[in-house]
Amino acid sequence: QVPLVESGGGPVQAGGSLRLSCAALARDARTNTMGWLRQAPGKEREFVASVAWNGASTAYANAVKGRFTISRDMAKNTMYLQMSSLKPEDTAVYYCRAFEAKYWGRGTQVTVSS
Question: What pLDDT is recorded for position 49?
Answer without folding.
Answer: 98
